[in-house]
Structures are given as structure tokens and as C-alpha cells.
Amino acid sequence: MMRRLYDRMLVLAEGPYALWALAIVSFSEASFFPIPPDPVLAAIVLSRPERAWIAAFVCTAASVAGGLLGYFIGWTLYDWIGRPIIDFYGIQAAFENFRANIREWGAWIIIAKGFTPIPFKLVTIASGVAELALPVFIISCAITRGARFYLVALLFRQFGPAARQMIDRNFNTVMIAGVACIVLGFVAFAFLG
After folding, report:
1. CA-to-CA distance for 148 and 142, rounded, in angstroms?
2. CA-CA distances (angstroms) from residue 136 to 2, 87, 127, 141?
3. How far apart are CA 27 and CA 58, in angstroms?
4. CB 128 within 8 A of CB 71
């Protein structure tokens, strides 16, 4: 099933709606969706290396826009929407600790956490709950997400053919490693805040 999804993603990445799909996943991941946009970005760069920089830009811009939605959820709708998201992941105590870290460290915590496999929606919602200054939030999100997505685009543009062969040969291992990174992100958040 995952192999079919990967193959479809590569076909989508070559098509005219690839950047729209990337924008939707990037926006959603920053506010409520559990899957990071990196695989879609990688598929676009693997399929069309000449689109690497525009894809990284779309991914970054959509992630920052989605981050604003996450911030808004935390700032105004936490009890209705934000808390159920945090409760769903079972990380209430870690979330409160993380919110305290944002109040103390501000932009630095966003920059550090936005580059890790920790789900970015947790960062954006906590930033809203902590009422981090909105300009600081936007600039921090742009820096951390831009650095991450441009690095992914650079690596897959530079090593694309070799990466694609490696993924094709070791598909199950790559998928397990990807899922493990997402799970480790949640575990790291839960234990490290």
C-alpha cells in the first residue's frame, strides 16, 4: 500500500497540480495534519529538479501560513480545537512545558523545534497559547521552515538520481525510517517538551 502511495506521489509530483498539493500538505501540517510535507517536496524535486527552489518556496510559504492558523487556534480557539488536538496525541504535560519554554525562549525555541521531526502544529499552537508576539512568530517560522525545506530541496536536487535509486531499492526500510522519525518527534516532544 505504501509503495502504491509513493508511486502515486511521484506521478502527482510530475503533474500540473504538484505545487498545489505541496501547499495544501504544508499548510495543513503546520496547523492540524500529522504528516510532514517533506516527502511531497522530495517527490517533486526527484521528479522535476528544475522546480526545486519554487517547490521549497511554496512549501515554506504555505507552512508559515498554516502556522498562522495554528497560532490562531492556540490564541483564540485552544479550548475548542487546540486542546482536542493535544489530547488526541496524549501530550498535555509536555505541551504545557513547551508553552513555558516558548514564553522563556521565544523565537529561539521555534527555530530549534521547527527544524526537527517534532510536529510543527504543536509548535504553532503552543506559540498562540503562549501569546508570543506575532511578528516574532512569523519571522521565526519563516527562518526555520525555510531553512528546513530549502535544505531538503537542495539535497534531493543534488543527490536526486542516487536518492531515488536508493529509495526504490530500499523502499520498506526508508518508509520505516520515515515513520520512526515522526514517532520519535512525538516521543521527543512528550518527554523533552
Report:
1. 10
2. 38, 27, 10, 8
3. 10
4. yes
Cell digits of residue 58: 511554496
Model confidence at 34: pLDDT above 80: no
Q: pTM of the entire structure?
A: 0.80
User: What tens digit of pLDDT does each residue of 53-70 get?
Assistant: 999 999 999 999 999 999
User: Alpha-carbon distance 153 to 168, whole Å?
Assistant: 19
Closest listed residue to residue 108, CA positions, set 139, 74, 78: 139
List C-alpha distances in Å: 42 to 5, 27, 160, 176: 14, 16, 9, 17
Q: In the block, which residue shows the cell 531499492? A: 169
pLDDT at position 154 over 60: yes
Average pLDDT over residues 73-97: 86
